[in-house]
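Students often ask why inverse folding is considered easier than folding. One informal answer: many sequences map to the same fold, so there is more than one right answer. In these notes we will look at a single instance of the problem. The structure comes first.
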């Protein structure tokens, strides 16, 4: 079913899961299987919005296949690679869920942690951000720069999160519709939102190694 972002002014279902996807052909079947299992277990109405960010592998056809067999999935194809932030922004525009969950396509986030994020959300937050435990990435090239970035964002914004770089997050519909994303801005949403009185918190989530493909960031 086509989505018309401009007509979505209030939530029409419980959960939207937004996934930026770039050259992830080897992860898509497992992503569909693990997400379906986790979301059916949660038992709320949901849709999945996958944004194909100009992939050059077989992602295009594989996402179309999933969309054809699972009516809860909606795919947006970009004609070229615009980057993860632009992909998330298109997903936020299209989302119809009262809660908008973002997750990576590479399964480094565990879909079973969505339950934990939602439980926290239900305590009365507008943004719940995952805090990755037991990080699998190499220390010097990935974790040290990320710790430094976290410290700079914390100190300059006054919002204390341990892990701004975790894609697994949940946003209230109003927050997802209210933010316009530029550059690498998606990392700053919790900090910016908190300054506007939005209630932000974090919960520990699992971190897994990427089993197929490689990171798009060096
Ligand atoms: N991604 C995207 N566009 C890009 C780069 C990445 O949509 O230009 C997606 C990618 O498919 C994945 C997520 O964004 O779902 C995070 O990318 P990646 O795993 O490469 O980043 P890392 O986990 O290494 O930070
Ligand atoms: Mg990744």
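Output (designed amino acids):
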């Amino acid at each position: 079913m086509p989505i018309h972002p401009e007509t979505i002014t209030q939530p029409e279902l419980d959960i939207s899961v937004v996934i930026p996807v770039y050259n992830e052909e080897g992860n898509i079947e497992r992503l569909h299987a693990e997400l379906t299992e986790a979301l059916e277990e949660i038992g709320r109405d949901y849709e999945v919005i996958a944004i194909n960010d100009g992939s050059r592998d077989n992602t295009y056809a594989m996402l179309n296949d999933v969309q054809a067999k699972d009516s809860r999935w909606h795919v947006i194809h970009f004609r070229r690679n615009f980057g993860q932030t632009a992909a998330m922004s298109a997903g936020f525009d299209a989302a119809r869920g009262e809660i908008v969950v973002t997750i990576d396509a590479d399964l480094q986030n565990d879909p079973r942690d969505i339950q934990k994020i939602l439980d926290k959300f239900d305590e009365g937050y507008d943004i719940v951000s995952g805090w990755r435990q037991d990080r699998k990435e190499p220390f010097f090239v990935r974790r040290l720069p990320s710790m430094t970035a976290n410290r700079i964002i914390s100190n300059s914004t006054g919002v204390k999160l341990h892990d701004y770089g975790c894609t697994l997050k949940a946003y209230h519909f109003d927050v997802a519709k209210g933010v316009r994303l530029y550059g690498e801005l998606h990392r700053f949403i919790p900090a910016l939102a908190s300054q506007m009185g939005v209630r932000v918190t974090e919960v520990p989530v699992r971190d897994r190694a990427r089993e197929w493909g490689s990171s798009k960031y060096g």
